[in-house]
Amino acid sequence: MPIYYYVAGAVIIILVLSCIRQIDQYERGILFTMGKYSHMWNPGWHLLIPIFQRLAKVDVRIKAVDVPDQEAITKDNIPIRINAVIYFKVNDAAKAVIEVEDFFNAVSQLAQTTMRNAVGEVQLNQLLAEKAQVSENIKKVVDHVSDAWGIDVQSVELKDIILPDSLKRTIAKVAEAEREKQAVIISSEGEVASAANMAKAAAMLAASPGALHLRTLQSINDISSDQSNTTVWMVPIEALKALEGLAKK
């Protein structure tokens, strides 16, 4: 057999191998024939006709886009900086290639704009208290717009809400004043309860003959248990006058 048969066979094999394209399990292949969309290739080996056909691979795994810090103003005119992360996946690979030039960048830009708009619709206290609800609202808007691009938004998570330093100090002062207010209220409530109990005890001692004397002796006993204590006795002036009268007799 002439040698050129072997050469022709080798050339054919090389050409066939060079035309084989592999689509991995996490990818989808968008095939264009003479510039027109033909069909989508699933994972596996496929034969591509050079010159006439072109292949665009699309990763269909879930992607995480870190939305950079955005300057925004809340509904009550407070300037803040906010950032987030958005999780999405390509639901329709053909639309992701045909309908938008760069779907990754498009989703990021859309998330930034939507995030600023969502912050402007709520007050600062609502944003801090209902971060999950605000994230859900951003997700709904981004998901609705990106449906035309074949994108399915999984979730949007607000990461940090950065407040101005002056506002942080003001919030700290408000929190401190609120704590002091609660402490004063609790202390006054304790004083009222203590006064009520003392009045009730005084009424009980006054109604029982000899009760006050017994309570005095009990107090003396408590004081005398510690040798370092000094006991001061206060004698009514009437008792002194009575002793003076006995001395004259």
Helix content: 40-55%
Sequence stretches where pLDDT stays below 50 over 5 or more residues: none
Assign the CATH superfamily of the domain at 63-168: Band 7 domain
Q: Looking across the biggest beta sheet, what order are the strands in? A: 3-2-5
Query: Class of the domain at 63-168, according to the CATH hierarchy?
Result: Alpha Beta
Instruction: Report mean pLDDT, rounded to a whole number.
Output: 82
**SSE order in H/E notation?**
HEEEEEEEHHHHEHHH
Count every helix, treating DSSP H or I runs of 4 or more residues as helices. 8
Total beta strands: 8
Please state the second-level CATH architecture of the domain at 63-168: 2-Layer Sandwich
Strand content: 25-35%
- CATH fold type of the domain at 63-168: Tetrahydropterin Synthase, Chain A
Note the quaternary state here. Answer: single chain
Name the overall outline: rod-shaped
CA-atom Rg in angstroms: 43 Å
Distance between the termini: 163 Å
Given helix and strand content, the structural type is alpha+beta
**Major β-sheet profile:** 3 strands, antiparallel
Give a written overview of the molecule.
By secondary structure, the protein is an alpha+beta fold. Helix content is 53%, strand content 25%. Among the domains are: 3-59, no CATH class; 63-168, 2-Layer Sandwich (Tetrahydropterin Synthase, Chain A), CATH 3.30.479.30. It contains eight helices and eight strands. Helix 3 (103-120) crosses helix 5.
